[in-house]
Design goal:
Blueprint: E1 8-13, H1 17-28, E2 32-38, H2 45-52, E3 57-58, H3 62-66, E4 74-77, H4 81-91, E5 97-100, E6 108-109, H5 112-115, E7 124-126, H6 130-145, E8 148-159, H7 165-169, H8 171-186, E9 190-198, E10 206-215, H9 219-234, E11 240-247, E12 252-259, H10 271-288
Parallel strand pairs: 1-2, 1-4, 2-3, 4-5, 5-7, 6-7, 8-9
Antiparallel strand pairs: 8-10, 10-12, 11-12
Helix pairs in contact: 1-2, 1-10, 6-8, 6-9, 6-10
Amino acid sequence: MIMEPVPLRVALIGAGFIGTDLLIKIGRSQKLRCVHVVGRDMNSTGLRWAARNGYRVSDQGVAALLADPEGFDLVFDATDARANLNHWRLLDPLGKILVNLTPSPSGVMIAPTVNGGAVTRSRNINLISCGGQAAVPIVHALGRVAARIPYIEVVTTAASRSVGQGTRMNLDEFIDVTGGAVQAFSGAAQVKALVNLSPASPAPVFRVAITALLEGADATEVRQAIEQAAAGVRRFCPGYAVTTCDIRADGTIFIAIGVTGRGDRLPFFAGNLDIINDAAVAVAESLADLSIPAGHRA
């Protein structure tokens, strides 16, 4: 008799743009089952939407999860960087896995196609930021083919309509964490990270522009490495594309990345939601594939 796989029981803290988009993506997964959605305001659009769609909801935030410690295996945190630090402090003693979608510096930074195997190193998993998820696979590829990278600049541009209150409150943290991840995964000597919220109408597709100075790199190898990195990301985020790759004779390279969303929670311009939420689902599904019950992982 073939036993059907048991989905990993997941809970979600936060029902803003990121949280509700993630909830839709979790609903499509055969390996994950959302058992609880918690927030702070029962009248919020996200919690009301989750309740209408049959999910168990609460406005008691993380306290609702602490009251039912055996009811879930993994928690997605889609709140804000400051709250995340407290959530981890409270959930850590329960032995739960926390997948952090806020730009908090807490936890082990994970980009699925770069170091996805590191998900077992810690129960506190840090998904960096939407800009980080888009840029890290590319800058990591550059770091592998260049002898040295004196400088990398990463500029993230998101449509203003795709950015909720929590993300707006965390723009400083977004810049710091994204820049730190770019430096850590590329080995660049100097890194600058910037972010733009565009009010343009029609709203622009989410994009990340990377400018780097490479030393000791072959142009053909650079292009191949970038193409391979982008193909890897598309396996879990199909809207991801490198739209420009301009390599100049002086070693300067300009790369433009666009991410077109599926239109789950917001229209297709909101690829910033897709890139980080697709990464979150990929990480959780990789944990679901492990034979050890999630609630008992060290």
